[in-house]
Amino acid sequence: MLKEREDLNLYLDYSNNVFNDYDLLFFENCTPIISTELSFRELKELQDQNFAVFSHGRVVLMNTKYLFLPKQLKDEKRYIFPTRKEHNYSQILNSKELGLFEDIIQLRDAGIKQFYFDLDHNVSSTLELYKSILANEKPEINKKDFTRGHFERGVE
């Protein structure tokens, strides 16, 4: 059993690739952050909605034990991938931040009530923005450097 103490709220990282109701059943004693590869259609079809949706931040593309990565990597298409150190390993992050913004309303209306934010800058203002969106206000949002990830199409 993953969780033996009832007074702990245990969240399972999205890198565990929880994709379906069978996975959710297996992890019944914790709250998984559902796979970032699922579309909105796939998320709302899940029977068990005891999960959190990654809603804002940089998605980790790779973990590595190599500790000497530069602060960013550039690929042949000139996309820049930030890196960060976590404990005794490094992470390569997506070139664009995920930002679901108003899409969070669709999630809430579909019965999804838990949202995950991986923030390392503008924490207060980002959380205030989402609070105002959830309060049905219409804040001005600059979405220029953000992606919606797989929200529309999922992974085929």
Question: Short summary of the structure?
Answer:
With 156 residues, the protein is α/β, with parallel strands linked by helices. It contains 4 helices and 10 strands.
What do you see in this structure?
The protein has four helices and ten strands. It has 156 residues and is of the alpha/beta class. It folds into two domains: 1-58 and 96-137 and 146-156, no CATH class; 60-93, no CATH class. The protein has a four-stranded mixed beta sheet, with no helix packed on it. A four-stranded antiparallel beta sheet has the order 4-7-6-5, with no helix packed on it. Strands 1-2 form a two-stranded parallel sheet. Strand 1, helix 1 and strand 2 form a beta-alpha-beta unit. The radius of gyration is 16 Å and the shape is globular.
* Widest β-sheet, arrangement of strands: 9-3-8-10
Largest sheet: 4 strands, mixed
The parts where pLDDT drops under 50 for at least 5 residues are none
Question: Structurally, how many domains make up the residues?
Answer: 2
Shape: globular
State the helix count: 4
Distance N to C terminus:
33 Å
Radius of gyration: 16 Å
The share of residues in extended strands comes to 25-35%
Helix and strand run: EHEHEEEEEEHEHE
Question: What's the overall average pLDDT, rounded?
Answer: 92
